[in-house]
Dimethyl sulfone monooxygenase SfnG (Gordonia hankookensis), 374 residues
Amino acid sequence: MTTESVSDEITFAYWVPNVSGGLVTSDIEQRTSWDYDYNVRLAQTAEENGFEYALSQVRYEASYGAEFQHESTSFSLALLLATQRLKVIAAVHPGLWQPAVLAKLGATADQLSGGRFAVNVVSGWFKDEFTHLGEPWLEHDERYRRSAEFLQVLRKIWTEDNVDFRGDFYRIHDFTLKPKPLNTPARPNPELFQGGNSLAARRNGGRHSDWYFSNGKDFDGVTEQLIDVQASAREVGREVKFGLNGFIIARDTEKEARDTLREIVEKANRPAVEGFRDAVRQAGNSTSTNTGMWADSSFEDLVQYNDGFRTGLIGTPDQIAERIVAYRKRGVDLILAGFLHFQEEVEYFGKRVLPLVREIEADERSTEHSLVGV
């Protein structure tokens, strides 16, 4: 099944490993580091190997295999200044940020980077991070109502002068930000991403963000979410792009890739995975329709804590390329990729997988043009 809008070419992002423990909660060897020097080399490798975006993670409290973390906005700016073309998305939590303050930081980061700063608004799943800091913990749909206001305030401050906003969570009075970000007709404001799985998340994505990020999903799961997000966007005359999380295990043979997946799961750090599962259970099951993040995630799914195995990007370069293009034909605009050994696997992906993706896409475009001419 295809959706109404299909990009000519899919784009790629990678998870910035700015937290310790890598992207899987497992005791398997991960030749990945959370330190600055490693991440600078990785960002430069990524932009040289076809990645257009990087997403800096947000975590404030040591927990669940991520004991050490670099703060996302400052780390994103550091990576922007170390690269030339890469767009870096900083994940942020409403409730821990005032949107006008973030807008100021974002405008500066955008100016310094030549227009490459973006934000991923994360409504929040980790209750302790709020309560330990003395901040109120809102229930699920209230967190998304707050995020909706947060997104609106950011966009208004970045694009308008003398901003007034009267919401339930934020009040802005005659506020003007200068300098503004480096807005252009093609990118009228720094790109706003918002993730989630629930109906509230899909509604927010359609109505207020530029991009909707999904946890790992198979084809049916992607189609279901796309239909909802697009419907919400159409109600207010908007278009939204769709990003999909996927953990990529590309190896020369399918057996090697499957064996790697098996080892990751077999060596899972069970106490850390179970602690994470307990922490996110409220986030996943707190909606009336049981469609929240991690609502139906198994133990194996949570070893990659954003359900990245579910996307099925595991196998040979040919197998992975074909599956990526199949997601694009269903309406996915971007793959947000995680890896076991980031540095070498990002390079392997750029040399062995991405050229196959582009080749398949070019062949399909050529076929479509030929059919149009018949």
Summary: The CA atoms of residues 254 and 315 lie 4 Å apart. Residues 11-373 form a domain with the TIM Barrel fold (CATH 3.20.20.30). The two ends are 24 Å apart (CA to CA).
